C-alpha cells in the first residue's frame, strides 16, 4: 500500500507543471468597498491601502460566468473549424477568434488539471490520516507540501487567466513626450519648486528604468523653480509604465525658499503632468500654411544662460491653436525641429482624445473623466506621506519617493494593477449589458 502511494505521488509530481506566476502589476478606479488595509513594509513606518489582488476577481460570480461564456465560445469555434464546408473567408474569421481565445483556453485547461491533481493529493492525505508509522508520516509531510504547491499554482494560474482578459493597449510600447507644468496659486513659487522636484523625480525614474531622457524644453523660474519642461523618454514600454502619471499633482508643505517661506505655514500648490505617446509609426499631416513660426530670445535667470540671438522657436498650429516651443540650444534650426516634434505629438494626442471621448462618454458619467485636469495624487511633506487618490495607495518617506526609484515604481505598479481590474470588470459589464435584452424576454 505504501509503495503504491509513493508511486502515485511521484507520478503526480511529474505531471505538475510549475508556473512562473509572476505577472505585471497594475490601472483605473473601482469601488472602495473592496479596499483592504495591508501592511506593506516590515518596518511599520509605511503602509499601503490597496485593492484586493487581481487574481481575487476569479471568485467574482459575474467574472466566472463571463469566463464560462468565453470557454463555451472557444469550444463552439473548435467544432465549427472541423467542418470542411466552410468558405475561406468564414474560416479566416473563425481562426482569428479561435486564436484570440486560445491562451485563455490553455490556462483554463491548466487550472482544471491542477484542480484534479489537488483532489488526488487530498484523497491520499485523507487515506494516510491517523497513521503513526514513521514512513507514513514522512509521506504525509510530502503530500502536504505538494498540496501547498499545487494550491499556490492554482492561485497563480487564476491570476494569469484574469490578466488574459485585460484588453491590450497598442500604444504600450511607445516612447513618450512628458511635460511638467507649474500650477498657479498665491505665492506661485511653491508650485514652481514642486514642478522642478517632479521633473527631477521622473528623470530619476528614467535612470532607474534605464531609459533615455532627452530634454526638449526647460523654462526655469526664480528660487530654483521650474515653469515648464518637456522631455522625450525612450525605452522599453515607457508609455505602459507612465501613461497613468498624467494629471494634476498636489503638494502640501511649508516652503523652504521664496516669498511663501516667510509665512511659515503649510501651503498648497499644484502642477500638471502631461503624457503624450509617440508611436514608432504615426503620421500627422501638417500643412505649412497652417503654421505660424515665431522666433525670440531664450528666457532664463540671466547671465550666460540667456541667448543674445533669436534662437528660440515657437510654432502655432492655427486651425487648432496648439503651440509648441523650444529654446534648448543656440541653434534656431535644431530648436525648430524639436518644436515640430512636440507639435506633432500634441496634435496626435488631440486626435486620439476625440476617439477616446466618443467611446467612453457613458463611463465617464459614472466614475469621472480621469482627464489630466483631475487631481490624482497628493504629496504631503509635512506628514511625510504620498497618497494616490485613485487607488488609496499610501506610502511614507517622501524624500526617498521623490528620487524616482523603487518607491515610485511600486506605486505605479499598484495603479496599473488597479486599472487592469477595472478593465476586466468593464468587459464583464459590457457582456452583461449585451445579454440583458435576452434575459428580459426569458421572464427571469
From TrEMBL:
<dbReference type="Pfam" id="PF00472">
    <property type="entry name" value="RF-1"/>
</dbReference>
<dbReference type="Pfam" id="PF03462">
    <property type="entry name" value="PCRF"/>
</dbReference>
<dbReference type="GO" id="GO:0070126">
    <property type="term" value="P:mitochondrial translational termination"/>
</dbReference>
<dbReference type="GO" id="GO:0005739">
    <property type="term" value="C:mitochondrion"/>
</dbReference>
<feature type="domain" description="Prokaryotic-type class I peptide chain release factors">
    <location>
        <begin position="297"/>
        <end position="313"/>
    </location>
</feature>
<comment type="similarity">
    <text>Belongs to the prokaryotic/mitochondrial release factor family.</text>
</comment>
<dbReference type="InterPro" id="IPR050057">
    <property type="entry name" value="Prokaryotic/Mito_RF"/>
</dbReference>
<dbReference type="InterPro" id="IPR005139">
    <property type="entry name" value="PCRF"/>
</dbReference>
<dbReference type="InterPro" id="IPR000352">
    <property type="entry name" value="Pep_chain_release_fac_I"/>
</dbReference>
<dbReference type="GO" id="GO:0003747">
    <property type="term" value="F:translation release factor activity"/>
</dbReference>
<protein>
    <recommendedName>
        <fullName>Prokaryotic-type class I peptide chain release factors domain-containing protein</fullName>
    </recommendedName>
</protein>
<keyword id="KW-0648">Protein biosynthesis</keyword>
<dbReference type="InterPro" id="IPR045853">
    <property type="entry name" value="Pep_chain_release_fac_I_sf"/>
</dbReference>
